Amino acid sequence: MSIFYFIAFLSILFAVLVISAKNPVHSILYLVLTFFTFTIQYILLNAQFLAIVNFIVYMGAILVLFLYTLMLINLNKDSEPVKSNIIKIAAVLGGGSLLVVIVACLKQVGISQPVLLKDPGLGLVKNLGKVLFNEFLLPFEVSSLLLLSAMVGAVLLATKDPKTT
Amino acid sequence: MGTADILIKFALIVIIFLISLLIAMYSTYAERKVAAFFQDRVGPNRAGPFGILQPLADGAKMFLKEEIIPTHANGFLFIVGPSLAIMTACIGSAVIPWGQKLTIGTHVIDLQVTDINVGVLYIFGVVSLGVYGVMIGGWASNNKYSLLGAIRAASQNISYEIAMGLSIISLLMTTGTLSLREIAEQQHGWHWNIIYQPLGFLIFIVCAFAETNRTPFDLPECETELVGGYHTEYSSMKLGFYLFAEYINMFVSSAVMATLYFGGYNFPFMHSLGLSENWVTILGVIVLFAKIFFFIFFFMWVRWTIPRFRYDQLMDLGWKTLIPLAIANIVLTGLWMTFIK
Amino acid sequence: MESLSNKRKVIESKPLNFWERAYLPAILHGLAITMKHFLFKKDVTVRYPEQKREFSENFRGMHSLKRDEEGRERCTACGLCALSCPAEAITMISAERQPGEENLYREEKYAAVYEINMLRCIFCGLCEEACPKEAIYLDGDIIPADYLRKDFIYGKDKLVEAPLNQ
Q1: What's the CATH number of domain A2-112, 2.40.70.10, 3.20.20.70, 3.40.190.10, 1.20.120.1200?
Q2: A59: nearest CA in chain B?
Q3: Distance between CA B263 and CA B139 in Å, rounded?
Q4: d(CA B66, CA B227)
Q5: Residue boundaries of the structural domains of chain A
Q6: Looking at residue A113, what is its pLDDT?
Q7: Cα distance between residue A42 and residue A62, in whole Å
């Protein structure tokens, strides 16, 4: 349990550093560390597959792409757009409503049954696969369709419009 | 798990770590020697008999050179880059089964550091993490060439990871497990996976070349275009770490290829020789290392044969050829499994 | 355009067939070629300090100041070599032969100091051609490397041929 608290502390620390870092590349690197602590959390929950997928997909692919784009964009202090007051007010409102939602959720939280003890093999690949392709087949396939449509959308954005060129 | 078991595990980790460092060291020597033989030359032959002390001399040179950190480089990340590169290279060997179980007295020693049931995916994760070392180093150098090299490395690694993953999926369909130990055990005797997955192996080995940044895919450090690529600004042992990481990666990926497709520690007639279990295990370890050395040699053989790809050709090959081939391989494997097997 | 000579060669570039586009046969062929070199070809390296390649006949290496049949120095310090030297590498100080030194120097005048700066010398051989007494020849080895510039100024101790009967 103490490992959990230590890792959770690290996650929050790195998450705070993500938003407070001055250099955008540094904040991406802190984000990488945050995701790494998440991976450790998954392993602590015995969800090995989820942990390793989080490791590969988020740390290994998505954040590399983040880093990739950030390295190409020259983000300096002087190139940072000046934010108008309306945007600031909108941001405060948005953040505040998120806070309200989180507080409302937290009020209803009870201590759940520890998942770990009931079924230690829950997060293993075999069980996960069986659950995904039996009980949750429809949502699983629907989410794959969502990913496919995102992919098609990306291709559409990347191809040049023949009229404008 | 008693104290003795923990000690044995610890010893195993240290031994594997030392062996990978030793092999990486001598890979630098072997590379130069092999290159020389391919080009009808002699190669290093001054330090010690046949030049076998050359890696030590190179190492000493690397340590004694001046450490240069460029003025406008990001000092901390500049050091993190090579450290990350060598760290990710070293931790990949943790899930590779080096042999069967050894029995000494009452202790049964498992010749594998850890048998996690997502071993194949772990290797993937480590490989995908490896690109951070290159990217951070290239960016922190504050040099255009380094940055371009880093960007090339990143896009190349991500592109080829997809094809690699897809080629592995068809292998996993036939084996039905993600644990490297179980995959190795299934290939008992002659039933090596290369017989069932020749196309998958071809895709995998091409991707392995791209992932380890070896010729013909060594565009991140392409010296004709990018001076030195991502390690242009590096000197001394930090450069040494980058070069070392490449050779350790080569060793680990050779070990993975041998385990996944060439039967790992299995060899034909391993139980009809009439030897005791321990001797079979030891022979198996030797056989595995022979396979690994062959693959390392193959890496070098290809390096001194094929010229470098152009970058658009590299991306064409990855996205337009290897990925469709890998998907076709998955479909073929599925058909084979449902109708023939 | 009309061709000026009949040497023009028309190159056909057919589209590649399937196996050519698949690269693999070509790659295997290349691997076979390199393997042939790995296994069968002997290396062509001359391991230099231990083995030396023969110099060609007109090789010009380090200078040597010759002696005649009786072991006397041929040089008479006329200075023609220094005059002809395009790199101005040769300097000398002449001296008159004293009585009793007839077995050392052939002529009545000899070079007391004869120095060649090997960093300036371009080994053109003009000194050899200019010498009326056949006293200097560039028939030696390659000039060895050294650390200091002053060590490249070769005096008579290094240049004069060894005496005959020793």
Answers
A1: 1.20.120.1200
A2: B129
A3: 40
A4: 20
A5: 2-112, 124-165
A6: 60
A7: 18
Distance CA B61, CA C24 (A): 40
State the CATH architecture for C64-159.
2-Layer Sandwich (3.30)
Q: How far apart are CA B116 and CA A125, in angstroms?
A: 11
Q: B224 vs chain A: nearest CA distance in angstroms?
A: 22
pLDDT recorded at residue A63: 84
**Chains C and A touch, using 3 or more CB pairs below 8 Å:** no
Cβ of C30 within 8 Å of Cβ of B306? The answer is: yes
Which residues contact residue A117 at a Cβ distance below 8 angstroms, ignoring those fewer than 6 apart? none
Q: Does the CB of A93 have a partner CB in chain B at under 8 Å?
A: no
- pLDDT score for A100: 92
Interval B29-56: pLDDT, tens: 888 888 888 888 888 888 878 888 888 8
- Chain B residues whose CB is inside 8 A of the A24 CB are none
**Region C106-112 average pLDDT:** 87
Is the pTM higher than 0.90? The answer reads no
Given a cut of 80, is residue B112 above it in pLDDT? no
**Joined tokens for residue C152:** 């490249």
Single-letter residue type at B99: G
Mean pLDDT by 10 residues, chain A (165 residues): 85 89 82 88 81 84 81 64 80 92 84 59 75 86 92 84 63
- Residue range C51-90, pLDDT digits in tens: 888 888 888 888 888 888 888 888 888 889 999 999 999 9
> Touching A: which chains, 3+ CB pairs < 8 A?
B
Q: Which residues of B touch A (CB under 8 A)?
A: 77, 116-118, 121-122, 124-125, 127-129, 131-132, 135-136, 139, 147, 150-151, 154-155, 157-158, 161, 178
Cα–Cα distances in Å, from B94 out to B181, B245, B255?
Answer: 12, 16, 11
Which residues on A lie below 8 Å from B148 (Cβ)? none
Residue closest to B303 by CA, chosen among A60, C146, A8, C27: C27
Per domain, the residue ranges of chain C are 64-159
Distance CA A44, CA A51 (A): 9
Alpha carbon B118 to chain centroid, angstroms: 18
| Greatest pairwise CA separation for chain B in angstroms | 66
User: Which of B31, B32, B37 to mutate: most C Cβ within 10 Å?
Assistant: B37
Tens of pLDDT, residues A49-86: 888 888 888 887 888 888 878 777 766 555 566 677 88
| B209 contacts on C by Cβ (under 8 Å) | none
